[in-house]
Hints:
Layout: H1 21-32, H2 38-55, H3 59-62, E1 71-75, E2 80-84, H4 91-98, H5 111-117, E3 133-141, E4 150-156, E5 161-166, E6 175-182, H6 187-190, H7 192-203, E7 210-213, E8 221-222, H8 237-252, E9 259-264, E10 269-275, E11 288-292, E12 295-301, E13 312-318, H9 334-357, H10 359-379, H11 381-387, E14 392-395, E15 398-401, H12 402-408, E16 411-414, H13 418-430, E17 435-436, H14 443-448, H15 450-453, E18 458-461, H16 464-470, E19 472-473, H17 476-493, E20 498-504, E21 512-515, H18 518-532, H19 537-545, E22 552-557, H20 561-566, H21 572-589, H22 596-617
Parallel strand pairs: 1-7, 11-13, 16-17, 16-18, 20-22
Antiparallel strand pairs: 1-2, 2-6, 3-4, 3-6, 4-5, 7-8, 9-10, 10-13, 11-12, 14-15, 19-20, 21-22
Helix pairs in contact: 9-10, 10-11, 17-21, 18-19, 21-22
Bound molecules: adenosine-5'-triphosphate.
Amino acid sequence: MTLPDAPSGPLGADRTFQVDLRGLVDLLSHHLYSSPRVYLRELLQNAVDALTARRQLTPAAAAAVPAAPGIRLYADGGVVRVEDDGVGLTEADVHSFLATIGRSSKRADSIAQQRADFIGQFGIGLLSCFLVADEIHVLSRSARTPDAPVVEWRGRGDGRYTVRTLPASARPRPGTTVTLTPRADAAEWTRPSQVHALARHFGSLLRHPVSFDDGSGAPAVPVNPEPAPWAQAYPTPGARSRALAAYGEEVFGFTPLDTIELDLPAVGLKGIACVLPETVPAGRRHGHRVHVKGMLLSEQAEEILPEWAFFVRCVVDAEALRPTASRESLYEDDTLAAVREALAERLRAWIARAAASDPDLLGRFLQAHHLAVKSLAVHDDEILRMLLPWLPFETTDGHTTLDEFARTHRTVLVTSSVEEFRQVAAIASAAGLGVVNGGYTYDRDLVHRLPEIRPEATVADLDPETLTAHLDPVDRETELAAAAYLARARDALAVFDCDVALRTFQPASAPALLVDSREARHERTRSQLAREQQGGVWGDILGALRQEAPRAQLILNQLNPLVRTAVTIDEPELARTSAEALYGQAAMLSRRPLRPAESSLINRSFLDLLAHALRKDS
Ligand SMILES: Nc1ncnc2c1ncn2[C@@H]1O[C@H](COP(=O)(O)OP(=O)(O)OP(=O)(O)O)[C@@H](O)[C@H]1O
């Protein structure tokens, strides 16, 4: 298996590249193919292509095709044999195609024609047999040239090969038999039960009958007795969808929430998409099973669906998709892009149908996959229009759909972070405000688009200041009485750039509310850095960026009994400690990460209060 010699040129001897076959096989086994088991896929694929080529022969040559041309597999533990009734090879073909790495009889001038007809095209697939055997033995008789002798080729892994012709009796019918004598270390891939399992794995949807004989004397068994489930006829639509769901379950190991039939005649694609019954982490892309002309190419193809479609797994069989040399993925070309778009459209149509006519299915689907749908709705107006009212959101009324929430709250307020929602939820809901947590990916964008489909609804951002404005001020007298305490508290919390105010709000059990947006904290950090770097280049830059640094606000609740007592404390140290403790408790309640200074403040105030309590008791 070396490249043919080239003639010497006048400027010096022209030399020919030598191919080190061992190195090439090593390259294939370690870098191209995922496992030695692919040798069987390559043999089956060559047999399928040979049968296809035979069908394309002139009517005279095709007339001799056996009644049911097929592929016969044999594995008895000693040898693995694949026999086909395909087009066969002449001696010249053997030299040209079998013995020349990288040359293929399937390569056509027109890529489209090549894709339409054959699975192979690179002229390297047969080399995969060296992953399990040191020698490949081929016996072939051409159907194209019926009077050509039978030809025998033996190719060895070290690059040597022999060819000889044999009398017609050596192979009475046209076709090809490939025999491997596996190496001892390849028994895992070549023992009879494994060969049968691999044949079923790769070939269960092949259109040509494939049989398997384990050499025990028992009759050969069919590998692909049934056509693909979508190619079969069923008495009723219900029976059809049950059969498709059962197939999905067999292939993927889960009971699909629903099964969507796929059919794209332009590329000869048929198959099913199985809707996963459980939530999958957003962005986790699932591999789909892709067959080309019935042959299983990949179980992990991601590229046939867009990213948002992570709620389905597909099995498809296509005529016109183009595999890469490893056959384990697909070429990213215009056809693949068109297939992806068409399949995405099919999934959208399924969602639309469920939204319009199957609320139960829609409910179960959204329960498991609302995140996927949200990511889709952000970019897809039609999905947004159909599904936004049904999507669940975290709100001050609990988890509910936007539609239901908008019915009870004419103005839907939305926070920009989870943290802000946590800070304000209890108080906002006590104040009768309807707030949606807009902190999760997509949620704020989606809530803001509600008026597009519910024009009567109003949506506004809820910033902490809006909420503060909704809290009732205390009367003047109370304010004056608390003034000294508030001044001490402000002084104690100045290090956190935190103002302190007294208001009344529900629930009365909440002593204090810390209103502090993330932007405000960033702004304060920037201002602080600018102060520290004053005069330096960074100080100038940060200073130029500085806006009026927004302050955090600790709002004490005059309705709370503890606060009522605290504001009357005269003792300066205790007043200070109680203010720090109230700040610490409110910061913890907001559930945002605490800064180191805040953690130590909480510790200190707790110990101080404890010491105070113990002193009082002694
Ligand atoms: N069973 C067969 N019947 C007839 N010809 C065959 C058979 N197996 C292999 N060949 C010939 O040997 C050539 C090389 O086969 P090989 O499997 O290496 O590459 P390929 O199928 O052409 O392309 P790919 O590398 O994409 O599989 C084929 O193009 C074909 O001409």
